[in-house]
Amino acid sequence: MRTLITNIGELVTNTPDAVSDNASSAGLGARVPDDGTARLGIRHNAAVLLDGDRVAWVGDAASARPHAGDDDLEVVDAAGRAVIPGFVDSHTHLVFGGDRSAEFASRMAGRPYEAGGILSTVAATRAATDDELRTRLAGFVAELHAQGTTTFEIKTGYGLTVNDEQRLARLAREVTDDVTFLGAHVVPPEFDNGMGSDGDPDDYVSLVCGAMLDACAPHVRWVDAFCERGAFSPEQTRRVLEAGAARGLGVRVHGNQLGHGDGVRLAIELGAASVDHCTYLSDDDVPALAASDTVCTLLPGVEFSTKQPYPDARRLVDAGVIVALASDCNPGSSFTSSMPFCIAVATRDMGLTPAEALWSSTAGGAAALRRDDVGRIAPGARADVVMLRAPSHVHLAYRPGVPLVARTWVAGLSI
Ligand code: NIG
Ligand code: FE
């Protein structure tokens, strides 16, 4: 099956080197302002050919002339609308049971967000059957596709027993290649002295690094840990991440969400692909990130839903840090699956331009997952393409809350 999308008013490729006439085609004269637009590799009056699950060709609409009688080819007339790479959501927690809308409502009435809320989702997830979790997950995947997300990562972390963590890893693996083992999400009650049990949190860390990792490793690509007061100490985090890395897993870190801490430093030291949240960064964290390959993944839905201060993404980009945006879709701190929503908030409240926010939601997410097959539209890339109901990518931030995704192709298939 081949698809030719033609008459594209604005095509975002994220491959600026392949676009020579960017300045003139942007209609801005010879000089393009340094607002991040140049990295989008924008083409005007463009066309894209999808062949099977790959992008086969990108060029001018004028030179894309299908041959009569080409039965195998669907021609889609974009009628001047914008086409962008599918969003890469590099951070979600989509396998869970239960509902925490009451907790959200009480937060909006003034209560603070606390990591302990995770345990109510753990109880509901343990009580749910595989089929209940699978059905709900399928609903989220449909929601993601409808909003233009074509690649997504999913973490475990609401099971916290060997069997339940393995179950969540297996279920997540049914819908994505990028599954992350997050046994070190919080210490479950049966191991936590502070909650009246006889257990010891360090024994839980040993379980995570041993039998739980053994059970989950065959189903996952990544290991993650929540390095935060109320969750895991830097020493405990290091044990978990080093154990995962020794099993060949890539490293990711939840860090610096609820306060300043060692998450960023540890992530860089361990060569993590990404450190996520980064709501509270020190003056040392920023240059250290800039000098590293570790992507800084910001999660605007979290600050929105927990009423915490927004991190300064402008400062990070200006320092040369690779910034990704992701939804962190989960029932506690950020129950949105919408990357357009994240783009709007990051633009309005975190100092990114619309172009930078789009780059961070596509190419930035791909960098956070260390993938070069997604996050761009170029020959050989996976055919993950989104047609907007808008003439330009700027509308993603300019028209917040409006469903602007007209059509999504995932690996060449129209969803
Ligand atoms: O990424 N920070 C830790 N974990 C999730 C929150 C999970 C929850 O509240 O259920 C997060 O924000
Ligand atoms: Fe998270």
CATH architecture of the largest domain: Alpha-Beta Barrel
What is the first-to-last residue Cα distance?
14 Å
Number of helices: 15
Which ligands occur here? N-(iminomethyl)-L-glutamic acid, fe (iii) ion
Instruction: Kindly provide the name of the CATH class of the largest domain.
Output: Alpha Beta
Radius of gyration: 22 Å
Q: What portion of residues belong to β-strands?
A: 15-25%
Number-wise, the strands total: 17
The third-level CATH topology of the largest domain is: TIM Barrel
Averaged pLDDT? 94
- Structure class: alpha/beta
Low-confidence stretches: 22-29
Helix percent reads 25-40%
The CATH superfamily of the largest domain is known as Metal-dependent hydrolases
Number of domains: 2
The 3D shape can be described as globular
In short:
By secondary structure, the chain is of the alpha/beta class. It has 15 helices and 17 strands.
Write structural notes for this entry:
Residues 83-388 form the Amidohydrolase-related domain. Pathway: Amino-acid degradation; L-histidine degradation into L-glutamate; N-formimidoyl-L-glutamate from L-histidine: step 3/3. This is Imidazolonepropionase. It is a single chain. This protein has 415 residues and is of the alpha/beta class. It has two domains: 2-86 and 376-414, Roll (Urease, subunit C, domain 1), CATH 2.30.40; 88-368, TIM Barrel (Alpha-Beta Barrel), CATH 3.20.20.140. The chain has 15 helices and 17 strands. It has helices at 22-25, 101-108, 118-127, 130-146, 162-173, 201-216, 234-246, 263-269, 285-290, 300-306, 313-319, 339-349, 354-361, 363-368, 395-398; strands at 2-12, 42-51, 54-60, 73-77, 82-85, 87-89, 149-152, 154-155, 179-184, 222-227, 250-255, 274-277, 295-298, 323-325, 385-388, 405-410, 413-414. Strands 1, 2, 3, 4, 5, 15, 16 and 17 form an eight-stranded mixed beta sheet that branches. A seven-stranded parallel beta sheet has the order 8-9-10-11-12-13-14. Strands 6-7 form a two-stranded parallel sheet. Helix 7 (234-246) links the parallel strand 10 (222-227) and strand 11. The longest helix is centred in the N-terminal third of the chain and has 17 residues, at 130-146. Bound molecules: N-(iminomethyl)-L-glutamic acid and fe (iii) ion.
